[in-house]
Amino acid sequence: MINLMFNTLLLITFIGILLYTIFYNKKYIWKLTLLTALSFVLVNFLPWTFSAVSLVMIALPLIFYKKLTYSTLMTTSMLGSILCAFFLLNYYLNNDSSLIVLLGILSVVFICFLAIFGIMKDNIIKFLLISNLIQLTFVFLDLSVAKLTLKISTLGVIQIFNYTLAGMLLFVTLGSLIQENKHKYLSELQGYYYKDPHVSIFASIAAISLAGLPGLNIFVSEWLLFKTSFNVNPIITVWGIFAALLLFIMYFKIIYILLSGRKALKEKAHMSLQIYNWVIALACLVFGLLPFTQLYLLGLLFI
To answer: Which residues neighbour 28 within 8 Å (Cβ) at sequence distance 6 or greater?
Structure first.
């Protein structure tokens, strides 16, 4: 059942990136297909230790960010995060460590520092790289707390489940606005709500979710995390509240930019991308407003 969930997350990611590349970067489709096929092989047919290759997928964009196309950034970030979560989950299921509490504290402090950098960044590639690293650190933090509290069936998988939805929604919507590498800076998207209101609304939903605000899916995972972590070490919860404030500022920047500034002639996004955005945005809302739905589904993974 765990493999089924990760296969589903990979499929959601593949469909979103495929629809995007069909309209904005057709030459990338074969690379996307190859990387996705490799991801399915790592999850289903090889020992879980091989999924450590995800660390390379995450590290390379950080090193070569100046040469990244948007399609490559989206693929390596999302597929790399899913594979890394798969690796970490299996590692925690099969190993113990005496440093888990310390690693948990360090990871939430690391999230705070990353969020500060994210607030200051205007470059879209750098902003999304930082965002992805923050959410992946949350996955690690969730697993650390889950291991200590024996709640691996919920905390162990809930963050990557929610991040795949909100993360893909943000990547696809921002990609539709910048049209691959047409724009390099978030500030260049000023007033884009008036040009493409539907996509801008979807991008705002993704940003609000990633910021961890109530009513959307990621709030559920962060609320469970910090509620549970208080029993492990209150320091994690205190830093977590500070991190939540910083993340709100970081992601609200997207909404502010889209709504402020000049007005532009309206244009419509491609219908298939709109349908994908509608489905993912609806999932973020349903899993946020009805949290028992995602808790029930994720609980089935360990039956």
So the answer is: 21, 69, 71, 72, 75
0.85 exceeded by pTM: yes
Pick the closest to residue 159 from 59, 206, 89, 61 (CA basis): 89
Q: Which two tokens stand for residue 275?
A: 């349908």
**What b/e string do you get for 208-229 counting C-beta neighbours within 10 Å, with b at 16 or more?**
bbbbbbeebbbbbbbebbbebb
pLDDT tens sequence across 249-274: 999 999 999 998 765 566 667 888 99
Longest dimension (CA), the chain: 58
How far apart, in whole angstroms, are the C-alpha atoms of residue 115 and residue 130?
A: 8
* Regions in the chain scoring below 50 on pLDDT: none
Residue 155 and residue 234: Cα distance in Å, rounded?
A: 17
Report whether 187 contacts 258 (CB < 8 A): no
DSSP H/E element including 188: none
Alpha helices per DSSP H over 150-270: 155-178, 197-210, 217-232, 234-259
d(CA 230, CA 190): 40
* CB-CB neighbours of 94 under 10 Å: 9
Bridge partners of 185, per DSSP, are 123
- Using only the alpha carbons of the chain, give its radius of gyration: 18
Q: What is the spatial distance between Cα 223 and Cα 30, in angstroms, rounded to a whole number?
A: 39
Question: In the chain, what are the helix, strand and coil shares in percent, each to the nearest 5?
Answer: 85, 0, 15
Distance CA 88, CA 99 (A): 15
CA distance 225 to 143: 9
The span from the CA of 208 to the CA of 215, in Å, is 9
Q: What are the φ/ψ torsions at residue 98 (nearest 5 degrees)?
A: -85, -5
Which candidate, 124, 148, 168, 129, places its Cα nearest to that of 230?
A: 148
Q: Which of 282, 265, 233 is CA-nearest to residue 103?
A: 233
